[in-house]
Amino acid sequence: MLNLVSTDISRREFLRFGSLAVGGISLADVMWQRALANERQTDTAVIQVFLCGGPSQHDTFDPKPLGPAECRPFDSIETAMPGVRITEFFPRLAAIFDEFSVVRSVAHGDGSHNHSVHWMQTGRYPNQLVFGQNQFPATGAMIARYRGPNVRGMPANVAIPEGFYYSTASYLGTRYDPMEISDPNKPDFHVPNLKLNDSITTNRLDDRLQILRGLDRFRRDLDTQGQSTTMDAFQMSALDMISGPAVRRAFDVSAEDPRLRDRYGRNRLGQACLLARRLVEAGVTFVNVKDYEFFEWDLHGTVGGPGIAGTRTKGPDLDMALSSLITDLKDRGLLSRVLVQVFGEFGRTSNINTTAGRDHWGNVFTALFAGGGLRHGQVIGSSDARGALPLDRPVGPSDLLATMYRFLGISTDTAPIDYSGRPMPLLPGGEPIREMFL
Fold this sequence. Notes:
Elements: H1 11-18, H2 28-35, E1 45-51, E2 76-78, E3 85-87, H3 91-95, E4 100-106, H4 113-122, H5 139-146, E5 157-160, E6 179-180, H6 202-222, H7 227-243, H8 245-251, H9 258-264, H10 268-282, E7 286-291, H11 311-331, E8 338-343, E9 347-348, E10 360-361, E11 365-371, E12 378-380, E13 382-383, E14 390-392, H12 397-408
Parallel strand pairs: 1-7, 1-8, 4-12, 5-6, 5-7
Antiparallel strand pairs: 2-3, 4-11, 8-11, 9-10, 13-14
Helix pairs in contact: 2-7, 6-7, 7-8, 8-10, 10-11
């Protein structure tokens, strides 16, 4: 049998030989993910909510009620944990604070969107950054490579809505790139790859498969390494995705109770979080939800955002979506096997600038973890009185991602081969956040 781990077959070759190529359908990349699933995989999964643009720690989960006026433009509120306060826009999360942990001492020291997004998505700083290109594989691609999907027929790595820069697979190969999904809040939302062309009936699909098999027999006669047998398995898996109901059901967010959809929020972020829950429940291992609702968290007060006042819009939407996701997972008995992680690329300055916004600040920011059967209801680390620097327990990007990898059972010593032929460990260092594993 072909050893897929050591075989180098380009994406173009696989699309040419291994895809169904009917009605514009091409699911070859997803099929490759399954063949490389870890034999010891469990049913654990991760939902990552990435707060694009970098939210202010002061105006979200690390308020400074006793700090200078510029550090506390909004009120803070009590949470379910005595002595712990968060910003006024998050009352639903405050009520379930015992279900998650907040890390208030994350830092990496970089203020560039591109470098920082790459760092937070991969665990590695890009010394040779090319805009929009991963120098190292994103975590979702690593998970697709070393864990694969939890259920046969499902993709391993999904991005909602759509992928974004620095979420791709780099030297692992494009077969591990995320399956990109459009805005699930749109009335006409569907996943094109899972919807047959209206002119193609099941009978016509069967006819085309018979033709494809006939052509493949010629190639099998010349095949001495077993590739054809492997390709047949990929083709049948792709057919399962197209013609089988399980995957289509998982992506059909319209099947949810309208009242539950309302609780998540009838907006892109809310419906993306709801779809993420459906996907991990159905067997997807990693879902990356991109929070870019209305505008980014890049609230400078210049082009692209309204300044810190934008938190009045974005905060309540995040509160609804995230609290509903955590509660929904718990109600369905999924919270112990699904880890929810929430962070952006960096934080914001303690001072408010001349355009009523906050500027980039990588010297301290906040991350949130929920579920995964970990220990929660705690604040880990702290920032100083102005929210400008870690006061204790500094945590870096590698520590955040090491926490996720440990939960998934993936060793960070695992070392795929990079473009130069060198083994490259998943992370350059870092330790899982021990407080959550006690």
